[in-house]
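U., I forgot to send this yesterday:
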Amino acid sequence: MADTSHPSQWKYGSPDTAGMHEVITPDNSPCKLTWVFRLNLPKNSRYELYKPDLELNGAVMEGSVKLIHEDKTYQLDKLDSFFLPGTQRILIEAREDAFLFIGGSLDEGKGIFFTRKYDLSLPLGDIHQIHGEPPCKREVFMTLAQQDEGSRLICGITIGEEGKWTSWPPHQHTRDLEEVYCFFDIPKPQAAFHYSSRKAGEFEHVHPVSTGDCVVIPEGYHPTCGMPGVKSSYFWIMAAHSPASRRYDLAVNDPHFG
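Result:
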């Protein structure tokens, strides 16, 4: 197995071919608690999702789908999301060509199935948030907030401003949480840039990222910046090292850039 401890090895591509793809697991990455899947469904195709050991939070990155859960049907359009405990299963049917990222972590029997519409008209609060000030202002929408019952996961969607920073000042939550950024709406040759570092005050490695790329954050600092005209846009998946650290307020800023 390749050495994945250095930040230069933290970028993972995801396949765009039809089907369910395992992108990141504790077996192929330095993450111990995080799984990332990519599901590509051509129009009218179906996939039954069931991972009995994992809680799952999935978001529609492109297209739209119909979910069937316990004989009830739900329509999910772009950036809508769902939460699925490990004891349950859903049938996902593509209403048009669709691409989903799905994050997973250890299921400990907490939480119930739900779907969430991506709605930026919601007032600012637990679900819809604005972080930072220009040039690092970004809009955040929680697909699985810490206020939602769950075992280990907290997940959401971040969209920065064109050519600007997100996750700035650089921060880390190494002791409490690991994370993955899954990028979307950045078609090649456009790119954003993900900066990875285990050391305060330094940038150890820079990854150019486009749609479908994922960068793991098992530790350290992780700001991003879009190239001119590009919004750094990503579905982020955080997994807590313990149920007690399933919190969103544990980040520690890099003192050199605070």
